[in-house]
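Objective 1.3, modelling of assemblies. Example input:
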Amino acid sequence: MKQISQVVLIITRKLFPFMLLYGCYLISHGHLSPGGGFQGGVIFGSAIILLGLVEGVALTEKRFRENLLSFIKNLGMVTFIVIGFGGILAGSYFLSDWLPKGAVGTVPSAGQMLLLNLTIGFMVGTGIAVVFYRMINYGSKE
Amino acid sequence: MNRILAIIILIILAFFIMQGLFTGKEHLIYGQPTPKISKLHVESGVAETGALNLVTAIYLNYRAYDTLGEAVVFFVAALGVFMLLRKDYREGTD
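Predicted structure (tokens):
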């Protein structure tokens, strides 16, 4: 197997935490600026995919284990529905916004939207990473 | 017999569709859209939801069911890949 270029390796290592940070920023500021759960989640997942392509999947799977990522994906889906039932418990209809709202323009200004964005974002990011692991490990019996 | 039944059902459906088209005539001005709900969202979206980004306000507050459906679609797609592409797959064994 051909050795990967040193430039790509070092730039990816330096860039990786900032990509994760930018994904988290897009997820958490989805109700204030362009972006949101799906977009931020895709950036979050593509950071892991980039690390997997450059560093090798075996090393990446040690840091971001597939079981953990899959668990976060399932947890995100369940949490979305549980938050939806919170609207019924508060006396309104399913997925209605019942949390108090802060001043417009700040991060906790939109009540439930931040929580839903977080669940969607982490579900999409980890789900894309898990799909990448499965596709690249297909047929490689250990 | 089937053909006659189909024609009767079509006539009944056409009756209801035409009734829906022509009774609400005061809302349907030809050549102009009827932007009642979108106007409402644009005017009172920030005050009602507290989100500056109106796109997010719509897809996570007014149309949260739709987003739930999208999340379920993504989840099922990931589960399908998760189930089909196994690591210990060998050609011709299953």
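Chain B has one domain: 2-84.
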